[in-house]
Amino acid sequence: MENRIMKIFRLVIMAAALVILTVFMVLHFRAGVETQMQKIYLGLYVILMGWAAVRVFSLAKDLFQKK
What we know:
Elements: H1 2-31, H2 36-64
Helix pairs in contact: 1-2
């Protein structure tokens, strides 16, 4: 039971991270992407969002699989 609770907790944290990264990326993009460093930051947001999305998907799949 404790393992299931921890999986739910990790799923919630990763889903929140995905939403927060999306908001930060949108705000960063709307502020303007003019310098090379701003483009690198935008790329890093995309990479982190991809990682968080994969983690959310794998945790949800593991949590909701039939046993």
